[in-house]
Amino acid sequence: MPDTLFKPRMNADIKRRSYYSKFIFNSHFLIFLTIAGGVFLYSLLGLLQTLESSIWLDMIAALLMSMLLLPGYRSLLKPADGIFLLPYETRMDAYFKDAGRYSLMLGISKVITGAVVALLILTVGHDTFVISLFLLLSLLHYIANFHINKRAINTQISRIGMTPVLFIVNILSLMLVLQHPAWLVLSLILLFAMGKYVKRREHRYLDWNAYIEHEEVQLNRYYRNVSMFTNVSHLEKQFKRRKYLDPLLWKPKGASFNKEKMYEFLFYRTFARDHDLPMIILRLIILFGIIMVWMGNIYLSVVIGLFGIYVIVLQMSQIYSAQAYLLWPKVWPVDRTFIQRSYVTYSHKSVFVISLIFGIIFAAIHPALFYIAVVFPVWGYLTNRIFSRTVYKKEQELSD
Amino acid sequence: MVLQIEHLTGGYSKTPVIHDVSLNINKGEIVGLIGLNGAGKSTTIKHILGLLRPHSGEIRVDGITIGENAEDYRRHLAYIPETPVLYEELTLKEHIQMTAMAYGIGEETALERAGDLLKIFRLDTKINMFPTHFSKGMKQKVMLVCAFLARPDLYIIDEPFLGLDPLGIDSLIDLMVEERNGGRSILMSTHILATAEKYCDRFAIIDNGKMVAEGSLDALRDEFNMHGASLDEVYLKITGGGIDNA
Questions:
Q1: Averaged over A98-116, what is the pLDDT?
Q2: Are residues B93 and B142 in the same domain?
Q3: For this UniProt entry, which segments traverse the membrane (chain A) (predicted)?
């Protein structure tokens, strides 16, 4: 049975990925990617023509590759497998081999993209032999790291500790091989030693719970990444108490303590205590801010800023969807339109603050044209208005 | 009459799960809704809450249907589900505040009412914690606190004793009796028949989606000619010991 089990699961996973890809790579995002990719390559090629060989360039190339050489492992195991597949444990080899191949393929596109950028950077000051060695060693690290990571699931070794160690070995090996090809020997020794170390600590029998838990974490991570672009109903929301934010959280008082304000009260808490959302939004603001500063061009800064706000508004709407489908809004004696109205109030206030940050970044880059920054809050308001309507419409259809 | 169900037929899809169910609950009454797994108890409760649309029949709470005025209809109800459903991002205090706002209760009144309930269920030291980190029994107690502070005319409680410790069960029974004495009504679905026998005024026995018997324990004993029998015995006779439903 396990021999035939993997293929349908892999097909289901591919189907899930293609389903969400349609939402992620929509026409707006593709236009943005084309513009951003073109501008990035144009700037990079221009920059490389003016640069001379330096250890810092090697460092950038090694750093970039090191971050991408940490492939995840997707076993596609399910909680029920921990019970029903136990008798088949000794016959799971084919299943895990297939899972390994599939996991390696899933991460390869990022490695190829990184390798192209690293290759361009390394053309400054390195010959073809060193570049080829660098790329070959990267491939070796990718495969070795994968096997080490996979085996480590079946050990007591801390996952939190393992990733930084692999990253350090990656960057050290790649940096040294760029300095002298002979350092390749050290890389091979390090990888061999790491592999041995993990293998020795591997449990004799399969730790089903660890594999299943690892798969759940990986799947949830995938959903979280997708949720940056679209609503994901399967995402298990996690929250953090963040007690230090309590004094900042708005609470209706006196006559306002009523059903009209209750969902606004809820939305602020959902946002502030969401495990990932505040950090995702902060990262997006920083990322888009850096790109705006780097591009420098006024039109590009505006387009990138507007796109940043668009992505953030998309993020914010997941809070509405998470609340609207719960049991209590259907049972409490509160008109459902209050959820929508409260969401509008909460989201307009939040999006206004975020748009203002983009406006300030823009005004700082182009002080003489600061007045153009007004476009950000206006855009924030309009996109939020349109998205809110789409979400309500979807909710109404599902409620019916 | 607090609850009137008349000839209710309904279910999750076009195929009905419950058929022609009728049931009335008077003011100040505890009614036990009893049936085997899959008999239709939860479906009946979901229809009363307005989570499902009846295929036919009518449900009135305090004289109004959900179609006439959903907000008014729901204001007379509080629901405690079998499995606790809580907001992961809210503290216990914030759950109380949300419930208070939903039912139009002032914050001070709500916290005052909740204070007593929290002491009864020994949750008073945990008011600023996330209830989702509590044990299942403690989560159920949070649900009870939120429902009882609303003081509606009708409580709908699905398996109220599930997951509660003996002290919790005792406290809940005391509260239910107190609420009944205060003129409020309770519809509870349960499998703990020995406890139900002691505290319910009437029983509605549902089997295969049909209301097969209804009345006080004495009335049921008379109807099935089982004088001196316990609710368990009466129930097993009415439902055929579950043999037909297996």
A1: 93
A2: yes
A3: 23-48, 54-73, 102-123, 129-148, 160-176, 182-198, 280-313, 351-379
**Domain end: B106, B128, B151, which one?**
B151
Chosen domain end from A196, A226, A256: A226
Any idea what DSSP says for residue A162?
Answer: H
Q: Which residues of A touch B103 (CB under 8 A)?
A: 332-333
Per the structure, the count of domains in chain B is 2
Q: Domain of residue B223: give its range.
A: 3-76+153-245
**pLDDT tens digit string along B117-163?**
999 999 999 999 999 889 999 999 999 999 999 999 999 999 888 88
Where are the alpha helices (H) located in chain B, listed in sequence order? 41-49, 70-75, 92-102, 107-120, 136-150, 166-181, 193-199, 217-223, 231-239
Q: Cβ of A257 and B100 within 8 Å?
A: yes
Judgement on whether residues A75 and A162 belong to the same structural domain of the protein = yes
Residue type, B209: G
Which residues in chain B are contacts of A238 at CB distance < 8 A?
88
B216 contacts B228 by C-beta, under 8 angstroms:
no
Interface residue ranges in chain A relative to chain B, Cβ cutoff 8 Å: 237-239, 241, 243, 251-253, 257-259, 261-262, 265-266, 269-270, 273-274, 326-328, 330-335
Half-sphere exposure of A326 (CA within 13 A, CB side): 18
For A247-278, how does the pLDDT look when each residue is reduced to its tens digit (9 = 90+)? 999 999 989 999 999 999 999 999 999 887 88
Do A263 and A307 fall within a single domain?
A: yes
The CA distance from B91 to B97, in Å, is 10
Q: Chain B: residue nearest A268 by CA?
A: B89
Nearest to B98 among A238, A266, A327 (CB): A266
User: Which residues in chain A have their CB less than 8 angstroms from residue B89's CB?
Assistant: 239, 266, 269-270, 273-274
A24 and A123 in a single domain? The answer is yes
For residue range A176-185, list pLDDT tens digits in order: 999 999 999 9
Longest Cα–Cα distance in chain A: 76
Neighbours of B146 (CB within 10 A): 26
Q: Do residues A192 and A248 share a domain?
A: no
- Claim to verify: residue B106 and residue B126 sit in the same structural domain: yes
Distance to chain A for B147, nearest Cα, Å: 11
Q: Is the pLDDT of residue A378 over 90?
A: yes
pLDDT above 90: percentage of residues in chain A: 56
The whole-number average pLDDT for the span A373-397 is: 83
Residue A253 to residues A250, A333, A354, B90, B168: CA-CA distances in angstroms?
A: 9, 20, 26, 18, 33
Answer yes or no: do A120 and A175 share one domain: yes
What is the average pLDDT across A158-165? 86
Residues facing residue B60 across a β-bridge: B4
Q: Are residues A119 and A48 in the same domain?
A: yes
Q: Do A238 and B73 touch (CB under 8 A)?
A: no
Residues B157 and B192 occupy one common structural domain: yes
Residue-level pLDDT at B244: 45
Domain count, chain A: 2
If asked whether residues B69 and B157 sit together in one domain, one would say yes
- Statement to judge: residues A329 and A386 lie in one domain: yes
Query: What is the residue-averaged pLDDT of chain A?
Result: 88
Shared domain check, A193 and A153: yes
Specify the range with the lowest mean pLDDT, choosing from A77-91, A322-336, B58-72, B133-147. Answer: A322-336
**Interface contact A269-B101, CB threshold 8 A:** no
* Residues from B in contact with A at Cβ < 8 Å: 49-51, 70-75, 77, 79, 81, 85, 87-90, 94, 97-104, 106-107, 128, 130, 132
